[in-house]
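Entry 14. Two folds queued back to back today. First construct below, sequence then structure tokens.
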Amino acid sequence: MLTVSNLAIQFGKRVLFDEVNLKFTPGNCYGVIGANGAGKSTFLKILSGDMDSTRGNVSMEKDARMTVLKQNHFEFDAHTVMETVLIGYKKLWEIMQAKDAIYAKPDFSEEDGIKASELEAQFAEMDGWNAESDAAGLLSGLGIGEEYHYRLMSELSGNEKVRVLLAQALFGNPDVLLLDEPTNDLDIETVMWLENFLADFKNTVIVVSHDRHFLDAVCTHIVDIDFGKINIHTGNYSFWYESSQIAARQRSDKNKKIEDKRKELQEFVARFSANASKSKQATSRKKLLDKLNVDDIQPSTRRYPGITFEMDREAGNRVLDVENLAAKDEEGNYLFKDINISLKKEDKVAILSKNSMAVTALMEILMGNRTADAGEYKWGVTITTSYLPNDNNKFFEGIDLNLVDWLRQFCATEEEKDETFMRGFLGRMLFSGEEALKKAGVLSGGEKVRCMLSRMMFKKANVLVLDEPTNHLDLESITAFNNALKTYKGAVLLTSHDHAFTQTVANRIIEITPNGMIDKYMEYDEYIRNEEIKELRQALYAGKLNYSIS
């Protein structure tokens, strides 16, 4: 058990949170959520001992072991991949090093033999003889093949290092596992493997993540950092979100009787429990929800931006035609080729690729910012597009305008340019009061994306093109953005690592490869789990097929 008592953290006059008292128990997975800057990563650093709190303390049971997902990708460059994973179990690694040092001595004494014998006993007790095979299993599950296990970490790419460091944190069955954004840079197959691993994990997991699907799949509780307080709520992220929304509506409905409110919440808990996630965590979540007191459900004080996409005109039947499109990287290798797309006005397309640069290249070509190496494309005459690029820096670098004046650049009417209207609009996008007068050049990543979304809303286009739209956004902004796209009447081309975002928006999946494409009208979950499609994907990426499949 991990216990937090009277915890507080303060930077100058700013109090992140105060008087925090929590207990984290084995068998549960706790998802830590909070707006950008609320203190999620700071909280994990305090739990791990990497940062001191202003007041209070964190305690663990005697001899309990905690591991943390490391963020420094260069820390272990002098070690092999296998050594890096084994180092995750510090005590076992120290015993292994001590044994090796004794056996390497040229003048091995009787005293050395006794010490070695003691170390061997400890090594066996800690299941040390299976350590390398267990580490190899973790590495393979995370997509690091055996041919990499004894290479130096310095030889690996950034994405590969992330997976090794994740294996390091998981190794040795720690009593408490702390994970800060563990799904970053992982492909969908590896994320699914991690979900299954954590669902089987018997000890305590505390995780920070912006991936709602991941939080839903693994979490039994949500740890909410909000307005200087930290509270634990039973259930996964979707349960927390839906129940808090119901409670907020009930609070605003002063005419509704207390008995009716209680009945509505009881019915919601029963319905959610019956329809619990199909993951291995479902049984434990159902038991927790069945025991939940509806009086514990409270409205969230979170603020969600007001994101709504409208269209000036409906798209005609001819939206976009792409014929034999191809693009190469700087070395002359194909990012994609033989791309043929006929986009319909009701299509919301998720574009996938194992190489994210390929999708960005395709979107840049379609938006006229890059020239294709082969093929052509044509937008319909009724089509207006609005683009959210992965890199939005050119819209903000060297800009000395405040947010009101920055956004005025993209207004079509005098009414929209009006100061009162503009300040009200920015307020709905969470730039209220003096925030609206901030300089555009000093915004955070999340604030820039909210500005770009504001720009898109003013354009009122009938086709939206979105390259990793959830990057830098907090869960509240992602949820509001997601809901806006679900109700948007126009066509959408998007790529996103956010599983829930893709699953709930897309009705068509297009995967582009250096050897052709796959084009399927189906939901994302169905696409990634379809065995026939898995075989087609492997064949295309391996170059065993060289044509488009629909």
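Second construct, same run, same settings:
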Amino acid sequence: MSQELVNPSSIVERFSQLPIRSRIAVPIFLVLFIVNVLVFKYVEGHSWITSIYFVIILLTTVGFGDIVPSNDFSRILVILLVISGFVTFAFAAEDIFENILKERFSNIGSIPTKTLNLENHIIIGGYGSKGRRVASLLRDRGFEIIVIDPSETAQIAIAAGYRTIITDVSKIDVLEKLNLDKAKGIFLLLNDDHATIHAAIHARSISQNVLIYAELRNAESDEVARYVGIDNPILLSTSLASNLREILREDHSFIPYDTRTLVTQQASIGYIRSKNMNNIFEEFNTAQLLGTVNLSLNTFQIAGRSPEFDINSVSDRYEYLFSVDRNQISGKHGYWKSLLQDDNRKIHVAGYSQIVKDTLSKLDLQSKQLTVLWSNEEEYDRAKEDGHFLVKWEVNKSAKIVSELVNEGDIVLSFFEDVTDSLILALSLKRKGLNQNLVQTVVYEREVKPFVRAGTNFVVPSQYVVADLILREFFNDAHIPPSVFHGNSHIFEQVVTEDNLKYWRRRLRSLGYDNLALIYSNKLGRLVKFDNKKMKLNEGDRLLIMLKKSFTP
């Protein structure tokens, strides 16, 4: 990715944008400055250092009095220099102050007066939980981020250091100034399908090439979204179903990316979760352990400095993140079988909103008898229409309901909208020792820990699930090496090119102790810990970077 560098052409361009008074005053001031230095050097007979020293002391009005002009010609030049200096400084101060006000004003809602001079930037409409996660992950990858949000959350974006415009992203006169033809992508995360569709129509009318990604709440909007030019509309129900399939799977080796679709490189990051990995490591003999993933908290822990696999230390509670030679995994995909397809298991669903109904329909469970715990009449009517077995959820009868309904090995999918109902269900299952396969969905990541303390094995923050799925689609479509996302870390591969070489050299130097960067050197042919003092980054090198705590809360 190209980085904006200071060069003569950019300096000239910026100077040409100054008001005409400043464009006249600045050259006059510079000429008089140089002339005065020359006069005090050759007419007054002082040294270069003394001459420059006198002129600077004069302009700053310090006036020590240790050096003074000795003739009328020198005095006249000094007078002209002081007058031009005062005028130039006054103009400059006014222009700077005006530019600061303009920049500040643009950050609090005004439409840019001209098209932004940016390339490969990312536009994010909506800075809620999904927008914050997407912005943070893309900034990790080196993208310039533009946030557009009309609400109070825009102040959070400004505080996080993003260029922010507090306005409606669906306004066409706003989109016209965002240089969409040169943007890498636009993400519409508005929680309002109508606003999303309008914004997409306007964005596509401006640029036929920009990649547009959006979250939609209603399944009916999916087909409409494709007509208006959204490249990959992501339904919440689709995201949840995808995540549930990934969580509820049997022991397996798993490589989560289709390496054949990547142009820049082939992915080499994957998970292993298996009780018998001997055969796997005979096949992937270059595998190197990067760390472990806690399945409950969705957190990543970096392995030691010289990690080695111990195939006898696998735990059902963790997944192991590894990296292998990309040539070894080409065309290989892991095996998994969903526990949801096991005919011997019963499935209980707590809560039955329209999104829950759409999610279950994508899990191919039509042949299974589901038990639905309903808490309001709307859920009851919807579940009854679909032919499910119904049980009314009552908090004061939670222990009895769980005891009579749930057996060992059953799967409980909890979608209750009320967090209190969900926690009580989790505690009731824990007291009966039946929480082994409880999967709880929550809206925000901050709600994960209470459920983990209550004994829930899998907690799915829906906002992050949507953001992660959208980004996976974007990376694939934009031919960007993929990322692995966790609640406390971001892991990704990066190919070093001529355009981004300087950027990644600087970035690696800035990584702190809690972060880890590995470099796969073509020369060495293996993964090694990157050391800025001993190793020099070159074009063609492949970075594997692990960032801890990179997300905006």
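Quick look at the second one. The mean pLDDT is 77. The longest strand covers residues 288-294.
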